[in-house]
Amino acid sequence: MIEAIGQYGPGLLQPTYHQVRVPLLKKEVDHVNKLMEEHKKDQEQYGCTLMSDGWTDRRNRTLINILVNFPRGTMFLKSMDASRFVKDAKMIYELLDAWVEHIGEANVVQVVTDGAAANVVACENFNLLFGCVTYLKL
Q: What domain of life (predicted)?
């Protein structure tokens, strides 16, 4: 970024607070939505993989990232603070099931989670519908 600013020269004007918050943000959201549309077309043809990864941040909050993998690549959907929830198999299953419903059950080929005990039990429920894989972090 610094190199690009230097190439532009001293006449570069920085965007205002309003420009960053409104028109530039809206433009970027539109760009990401267009990228997602291309992925969604593939999802209907090839299916997709729903992925979740739970972790704990420095403030000891439990965070869960939700991603979806398409043939074109992986897209981040949401990161949620799950600290107020009991991180058990039922909660994990309900969370993932809600995302399966959001994406469309016919479009989800498999669910992939990390190897936490609650995720393993939650995956056993998904194996009745379609593949579910847990992996261990090394």
A: Eukaryota
CA torsion sign for 106, 107, 109, 114 is negative
SS (H, E, C) the chain: CHHHHHHHCCCCCCCCHHHHHCHHHHHHHHHHHHHHHHHHHHHHHHCEEEEEEEEECCCCCEEEEEEEEECCEEEEEEEEECCCCCCCHHHHHHHHHHHHHHHCHHHEEEEEEECCHHHHHHHHHHCCCCEEEEECCC
Average pLDDT over residues 14-39: 90
Worst-scoring range by mean pLDDT, 55-69, 91-105, 115-129?
115-129
Residue 133 is predicted with a pLDDT of 63
Report the predicted TM-score, pTM, of the whole model to 2 decimal places.
0.73
Instruction: Give yes or no for a contact between 68 and 48, defined as CB atoms under 8 angstroms apart.
Output: yes
Provide the token pair at 53: 């990864």
